[in-house]
Design brief:
single chain; 134 residues; alpha+beta; Arc Repressor Mutant, subunit A; 3 helices; elongated
Amino acid sequence: MSAGALLEKLRECGVRVEADGLTLRVDAPEEADTAELREALREHKRALIRLLERERRRLEEADRRGLIIKWAKEPGYISLHDPTTGDWHEVKASECPPWVLDDARAHHRRRKEKAAKPSPMGPGGRGRLKGVNG
């Protein structure tokens, strides 16, 4: 069993698992606390800690980004960034409420405006120093 499958099984059984540095903290209901569970946790401890840390970083990043609404690459769809999971979802624009479409249009407009601004570094993105090279 992989660490991901084990973590999913633990959560289904109501077992809380947290990574605290190199320590794996486990809070299991009495009926789930078995010798088999303890052996699986010992076997997959390092992988579970890595997985939980990666999950924690992903959720922190998602929380930092917040809700993002933009047009998807697929025509007629909106991409939504879910700040609670960090996942991106594509939804048909025709199924979205008007405020979602307004946000997608505003995001697109800001990107176009940002792309149209001249670079402070000059043409081609390269700056020039006075008195150097002409």
